[in-house]
């Protein structure tokens, strides 16, 4: 009995000591827990502020328009780059090297800004590296395999208008993937009008003879389809990975793929002058800025709300191609196509505005 009593007392002392230590630990960790809670609340507030800012219709319109202006300028810039680097129309391998240099440089610039400018660590898990590598191979590598060849085999005006199919693909895909981004009557009408505009631009000036090249206009459409699919994939990645990291890594990976592919096929880009170098640097900056801003918009908005602005690319592309390449834009088919595309933008944005007013 005495031994059992001693054991009971000893157990009681140990239990009391453990409780005391636990209370002390909780008291010591309380400030730390409060700090974590406050940090979480602060991060949540900052996220909500960013969401509010980048979801504002005016901000979305301005940023999306800037991206489309930059992408529209790529059509004349790429064609001028072919001339500056002495790349012949049939030299597909060198076109891939040219594209690879552009996107590799764009990715490096973004990652340097991320690491040095914002002082953030380039740290990703194995799964995240794999996801971004897939995005880079598809969104940058595969898309621009089609795009660079397509641009070489059509005019800048025609190619930029053909690229409006990106919006059509994006809006339709979003309807089947997202529950809150469904097609409406105005969206359907807007996309159909834009698509009709794309068809019209493939006719000759008399609007009777249809002209379509698979390695030209066809490749532009394929590039638009790849971009639409990968934009949705990129949107999913933004929920867990920083947008700048996503853009930088995907551009770098895709650029390396294009460079290695072009070099393995015998391509070379060697005629570096002040003019050709500035052309390459501009294209790299264009890519890094446009893709990064576009991914930010996709992070905070519905795909359909953002992708509709892709209809602006043919307008900017056609105007800039006419300005820098001397291509004609004043043909009836081009004007009709641009009007239809512009009306398509208005209709889709009109339905978005009405929905926003009703939800307030």
UniProtKB/TrEMBL annotation:
Q: Which InterPro entries match?
A: AA-Vitamin_Transporters, EamA_dom, EmrE-like
Q: In which organism is this protein found? A: Paenibacillus silvae
Assigned protein family:
Belongs to the EamA transporter family.
Query: What are the entry keywords?
Result: Cell membrane, Membrane, Transmembrane, Transmembrane helix
Spell out the PANTHER family in the cross-references.
INNER MEMBRANE TRANSPORTER, S-ADENOSYLMETHIONINE_S-ADENOSYLHOMOCYSTEINE TRANSPORTER
Main location per the UniProt record: membrane
Q: Where in the cell is it found?
A: Cell membrane
Q: What's this protein's name? A: Membrane protein
- The EamA domain is annotated at 60-202, 215-349
Entry annotated with the keyword Membrane:
yes
Q: Where is the composition biased (Basic and acidic residues)?
A: 1-12
Looking at the UniProt entry, the stretches that span the membrane are 58-78, 98-117, 129-149, 161-178, 190-212, 218-234, 246-267, 279-297, 309-329, 335-352
Q: Where is the composition biased (Low complexity)?
A: 13-28
Renumbered to this chain, region (Disordered) spans 1-29
Q: Key word Cell membrane present in the record?
A: yes
Identify its membrane topology class.
Answer: Multi-pass membrane protein
């Amino acid at each position: 009995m005495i031994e059992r009593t001693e054991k009971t007392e000893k157990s009681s002392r140990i239990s009391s000591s453990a409780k005391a230590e636990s209370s002390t630990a909780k008291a010591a960790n309380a400030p730390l827990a409060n700090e974590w809670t406050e940090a979480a609340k602060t991060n949540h507030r900052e996220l909500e502020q960013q969401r509010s800012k980048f979801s504002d219709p005016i901000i979305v319109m301005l940023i999306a328009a800037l991206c489309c202006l930059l992408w529209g300028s790529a059509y004349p810039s790429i064609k001028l780059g072919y001339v500056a680097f002495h790349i012949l129309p049939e030299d597909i391998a060198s076109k891939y090297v040219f594209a690879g240099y552009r996107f590799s440089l764009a990715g490096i610039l973004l990652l340097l800004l991320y690491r040095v400018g914002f002082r953030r660590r380039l740290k990703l898990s194995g799964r995240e590296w794999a996801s971004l590598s897939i995005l880079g191979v598809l969104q940058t590598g595969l898309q621009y395999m089609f795009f660079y060849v397509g641009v070489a085999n059509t005019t800048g005006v025609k190619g930029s208008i053909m690229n409006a199919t990106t919006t059509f693909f994006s809006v339709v895909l979003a309807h089947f993937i997202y529950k809150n981004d469904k097609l409406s009557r105005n969206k359907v009408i807007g996309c159909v009008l834009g698509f009709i505009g794309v068809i019209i631009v493939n006719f000759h000036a008399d609007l009777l003879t249809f002209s379509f090249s698979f390695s030209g206009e066809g490749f532009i459409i394929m590039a638009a389809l790849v971009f639409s699919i990968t934009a949705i994939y990129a949107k999913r990645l933004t929920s867990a990975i920083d947008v700048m990291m996503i853009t930088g890594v995907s551009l770098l990976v895709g650029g390396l793929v294009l460079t290695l592919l072009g070099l393995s096929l015998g391509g070379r880009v060697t005629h570096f002058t002040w003019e050709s170098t500035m052309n390459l640097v501009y294209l790299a900056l264009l890519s890094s800025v446009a893709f990064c801003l576009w991914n930010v918009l996709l992070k905070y908005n519905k795909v359909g709300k953002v992708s509709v602005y892709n209809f602006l690319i043919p307008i900017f592309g056609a105007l800039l191609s006419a300005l820098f390449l001397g291509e004609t834009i004043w043909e009836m088919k081009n004007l009709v196509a641009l009007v239809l595309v512009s009306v398509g933008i208005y209709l889709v944005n009109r339905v978005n505005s009405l929905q926003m007013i009703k939800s307030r």
